[in-house]
Amino acid sequence: xxxxxxxxxxxxxxxxxxxxxxxxxxxxxxxxxxxxxxxxxxxxxxxxxxxxxxxxxxxxxxxxxxxxxxxxxxxxxxxxxxxxxxxxxxxxxxxxxxxxxxxxxxxxxxxxxxxxxxxxxxxxxxxxxxxxxxxxxxxxxxxxxxxxxxxxxxxxxxxxxxxxxxxxxxxxxxxxxxxxxxxxxxxxxxxxxxxxxxxxxxxxxxxxxxxxxxxxxxxxxxxxxxxxxxxxxxxxxxxxxxxxxxxxxxxxxxxxxxxxxxxxxxxxxxxxxxxxxxxxxxxxxxxxxxxxxxxxxxxxxxxxxxxxxxxxxxxxxxxxxxxxxxxxxxxxxxxxxxxxxxxxxxxxxxxxxxxxxxxxxxxxxxxxxxxxxxxxxxxxxxxxxxxxxxxxxxxxxxxxxxxxxxxxxxxxxxxxxxxxxxxxxxxxxxxxxxxxxxxxxxxxxxxxxxxxxxxxxxxxxxx
Length: 463
Ligand SMILES: *Cc1c(COP(=O)(O)O)cnc(C)c1O
What we know:
7-stranded mixed sheet, 463 residues, binds pyridoxal-5'-phosphate
């Protein structure tokens, strides 16, 4: 054992080598030394564990150098990096959901690169409340009396139930006990909030009488949840918001709707099924309505809660607010996003909406441009074409219904489509595509400004 390691350089001798010093030159000396030590430890452990036979000093030095180079790269490179979304899924949770608009980024920069009035009341010069910066805009857009913003929509549901149904009961239809990707399971959130879940109805049919039957003096909340990422069709029945509201009013309970995807405007004209928007749900009399800030709203990760003033005020005083609050970066992005809904230019300024509203002709034009350029580059090594296809809104929304789109399809002849897909994923920037019918498919729906040029460059480098 000791024999196998006797040629391992020491930290000091390692640091004396010119190539090592140069490789670590960006770090302060102590950090450089730590990295060498870390590399040496790893080689030592590896040699012992794998019972490696003795190596020459040169071989070990090379091993150490390779190891410290890869450690160094981890520290210097940005692990979170931009990718090109060619999946056609507009709100792709794994790819960061809604892209942030340019105006919103500008506001973020202005507000966050210096100090701001995050919790400062300009009138009185005293401490203000960060929760209410977005309130007027949200109330105007949703028709609600009051509004509050937290870290995400899961946190919104958690806060609502913890405030009003802790140690009491929340009634939910069995058809709405959802799991959203990324481990949002409604029954678990309910449990964590301290509320007791009372399930009613069946998976496919729930009536208002099912709710009526279980209400007792411990019932605090009647919760209606958007079954965001799945759809039951056929023999189905769900209670309407109005029915739930009227039952809540007559039983002194609170009617809550978790919309998931909070629509501030109608989306039927883009070819998606029409759904009630936040304004309509608020108008139905729901006491509290919550939704995400980075789904179709197109802002930043947040949970937006709107509803009755007294209830919002009670929630804002829950000590949990301290753990669920949003920071200035998020508020500034949301504020700009809401501004664009207010003045009505969201199709232009909110990227998620821009992608959603891009016309088929425009997508076809883009697809042709990209397919032609790629086809020219790959020559007889493959084939590039265009095809009609289907994009999705994503983010756990409207799962069954797609949006028409135009795709670029690439059939490589000399490597497999899996290989090409992997190479795309390893590109700089990575291109996230999919494989369909033996071809690599790039959906133009989710390509942003400049992406076509970057994909063309990728193929130029590849060939
Ligand atoms: C997406 C979704 C959530 C979770 O929202 P996040 O903002 O991701 O925390 C909760 N409820 C419903 C109905 C959803 O669709």
